[in-house]
Specification:
Layout lengths: L3 H6 L6 E4 L9 H9 L3 E5 L15 H9 L1 H5 E2 L4 E9 L5 E9 L8 E2 L5 E4 L2 E4 L2 H10 L9 E2 L9 H10 L7 H7 L3 E4 L2 E5 H7 L3 H4 L5 E6 L12 E7 L3 H15 L2 E5 L6 E5 L3 H14 L9 E5 L3 E7 L20 H9 L6 H14 L6 E3 L4 E7 L2 H16 L1 H6 L2 H13 L2 E2 H8 L3 H13 L3 E4 L8 E4 L2
Parallel strand pairs: 1-2, 12-16
Antiparallel strand pairs: 2-5, 3-6, 4-5, 7-8, 9-11, 10-11, 12-13, 14-15, 16-17, 17-19, 18-19, 20-22, 21-22
Helix pairs in contact: 10-11, 11-13, 14-16
Length: 478
């Protein structure tokens, strides 16, 4: 990718920067810090970053070139991992010369600062200094500090749920120990200037009223009517529930509620000849998704919460924060790391949390065992999203049940199978075009239009747009 043409002419970006040979080696520190604290990148030295003319290196002499090469070591603390290489070029003056490329690796588990104790981050094509809350969030992301270990100056031991504390002491065979002794021994109670303070982890786990201290410690469940999330006049939310509890109660509450929203269907087992009950999703898969979201989310992100979205065809679990540290969507099955080790340990002692990769592996295997698509992990914006897809049997059951309820059993029986299919498709997707229905059903446009006109006459479907407009849309009447 880093051809000479690219290095000279392409705009600088998140992974690439060019610097004039006139730059002081000490001034490279901020850019090295920025790349190391982001996703890594390359600094090309010897191309003027304004005119983009190829200057080359030879004119500055070996001493300064060596200073450039050693700048990650001399200008940053700790030194990031890096490599360097020379590229032979012809300068703009027509002379044989060289460029120096510094390839800076991403720092996985530590923040890279300049020797002046400045911290930078590569954002787009700029190196931006991290200050205040932005610096703290970067340190959380790099595990240079743990939000769960920081003190909460507002909460007191009296604000904790005594029943939860007793349950926890029983789980670790510490019944005879006082609550204060237990909290201090487990790092949940710290002293500062002679005053004892609870940590964030202690309050998140044991608080009587979690909303008083952490309004974002909640799981929001949203059930949508169809396969999409409508907005405005097309909003299609049919269930919206917030579960706001301390971590040691929120998992059980969420499991019980979500289980009540899931469907089961009866299937004839071809091998045994007997009917069996099949759940919409493997129980372990969605429950482990909830547990991982609770254990490994980024609690420092204000205003963010865990969201579980149920559609006809899938279940989505979104957790605030990127995947922790060295874990990526590509290695999540085989790499373990906990953003909140103290919280995870407590949840493990209650029997909820397995090692991250162990649980994820079983999510994959259970989905395969149920003949379902593999789980899909992604990182949209500042979240981790897990998508579990159900099968066509469940989708059809959900759609047909809802359409029949909307239409009414009597009228439903008077409609033909194609009209059933059209209505189910519309409810799952909102406004559709006749060509969408043609592609979905395999029927001609003329056949589709005949059924649509009948459904419009029955008041079940409404059209939007001129009837001669090929972009005219149809949707189920409200």
């Amino acid at each position: 990718m880093l051809t000479l043409d690219y290095m000279q002419h392409e705009p600088e970006n998140k992974y690439f920067d060019r610097k004039s040979v006139k730059i002081r080696p000490a001034d490279l520190g901020r850019h090295i810090s920025a790349f190391a604290n982001a996703d890594g990148g390359t600094i090309v030295i010897g191309i003027d970053d304004k005119s983009r003319k190829i200057e080359g290196l030879n004119s500055v002499g070996d001493e300064k070139i060596n200073e450039f090469i050693n700048s990650p070591k001399n200008c940053c603390r700790p030194m990031p991992k890096y490599m360097y290489e020379f590229v032979d070029v012809k300068s703009s003056a027509g002379e044989e010369d060289r460029l120096l490329l510094l390839h800076i690796s991403e720092s996985v588990d530590q923040v890279i600062r300049t020797i002046n104790d400045e911290t930078w981050l590569r954002i787009g094509d700029r190196s931006v200094e991290m200050l205040g809350e932005n610096l703290i969030n970067l340190e959380y992301a790099k595990s240079a500090r743990h939000y769960e270990d920081e003190i909460n100056t507002d909460a007191r031991i009296e604000d904790l749920d005594k029943d939860l504390l007793e349950m926890y002491k029983r789980s670790i065979d510490a019944d005879e120990v006082s609550n204060e002794q237990m909290l201090r021994a487990r790092g949940f109670l710290k002293s500062r200037d002679g005053i004892d303070y609870l940590t964030n982890a202690a309050v998140l786990l044991f608080a009587k009223n979690i909303y008083q201290f952490y309004p974002n410690c909640r799981i929001r469940f949203i059930r949508y009517d169809g396969n999409y999330a409508g907005v405005g006049h097309d909003i299609n939310i049919i269930r919206d529930k917030n579960i706001e509890l301390p971590l040691l109660r929120i998992i059980d509450e969420a499991k019980d509620f979500i289980a009540s929203q899931l469907r089961e269907f009866t299937l004839l087992d071809a091998n045994s000849g007997k009917f069996k009950i099949v759940p919409e999703y493997p129980e372990f898969a969605w429950q482990e998704g909830i547990v991982n979201a609770v254990a490994h989310r980024e609690y420092a992100l204000v205003g963010s919460y865990i969201k579980v979205s149920m559609y006809d065809d899938r279940l989505e679990i979104e957790s605030p924060g990127k995947l922790p540290n060295i874990v990526t969507v590509d290695n999540i099955k085989d790499t373990r790391y906990s953003r909140n080790p103290r919280i995870s340990r407590v949840l493990t002692e209650f029997g909820w949390v397995r090692e991250l990769n162990e649980g994820v592996k079983r999510i994959y295997s259970d989905m395969e065992r149920f003949f379902l698509d593999p789980p899909v992990y992604s990182e949209p914006e500042q979240t981790v999203r897990l998508v579990l897809k159900n099968n066509i049997v469940m989708r059809t059951l959900r759609q047909n049940d809802r359409v029949e309820e909307f239409v009414g059993a009597k009228l439903w029986d008077q409609l033909d199978n194609l009209e059933h299919t059209i209505l189910s498709y519309m409810i799952g997707r909102g406004a559709v075009k006749s060509v969408d229905l043609k592609n979905h059903t395999g029927k001609s446009v003329a056949t589709i239009m005949k059924r649509l006109n009948h459904l419009i006459e029955e008041g079940l479907v409404v059209a939007n747009g001129n009837k001669y407009d090929p972009n005219r849309t149809y949707k189920v009447a409200q």
